[in-house]
Specification:
With 152 residues, this protein is α+β, with helices and mostly antiparallel strands. It is built from 2 helices and 9 strands, in the order E-E-E-E-E-E-E-E-E-H-H.
């Protein structure tokens, strides 16, 4: 799980770290307290890569043992270690976490979609998963995994 939540608006009543124009919520302050990336004169997020001065989202995270609930810091390898994976027509669709899975499901199921942009959680969905002919397969696969894990 990503150890930080970034927002450009501070939620009321929360103590957050400030990083340029971002408010940073530490989700696991005991394991991974926030510290700005080295050379981060420019405050930006990099999804799925390594940035020069920015923060690389979802590269290091926290995993939790399903048996004892112990939490550990872990260097993440995507998509191999993605909990949320769906083989669809010979290709692998995956999500970073439950919220991302829900975002993908909602975006794919929409018949009129807003532009997804090149960056952010929806920017990297391969176009073959967005075609109308696979829409039902994608939504069913995601819904099935959410139901199996009792999360929706």
């Amino acid at each position: 799980m990503e150890p930080y939540r970034f927002s450009n608006v501070a939620p009321a009543g929360q103590r957050l770290q400030r990083w340029g124009g971002w408010f940073v919520e530490e989700r696991f302050p005991d394991l991974m307290p926030w510290s700005a990336p080295k050379g981060s004169g420019q405050q930006y997020l990099v999804f799925g890569g390594v940035g020069n001065g920015g923060y690389s989202v979802l590269r290091r995270g926290v995993v939790e043992c399903l048996v004892c609930h112990a939490r550990f810091v872990h260097d993440l390898r995507w998509p191999d270690e993605a909990w949320w994976q769906w083989p669809i027509r010979g290709r692998l669709l995956w999500a970073w976490d439950r919220d991302h899975a829900l975002q993908i499901r909602d975006y794919v199921s929409a018949t009129h979609r807003p532009a997804r942009g090149l960056h952010g959680p929806l920017g990297r969905i391969p176009s073959e998963f967005l075609a109308a002919k696979v829409r039902e397969s994608v939504v069913k696969a995601i819904d099935r995994s959410l139901l199996i894990h009792g999360l929706d």
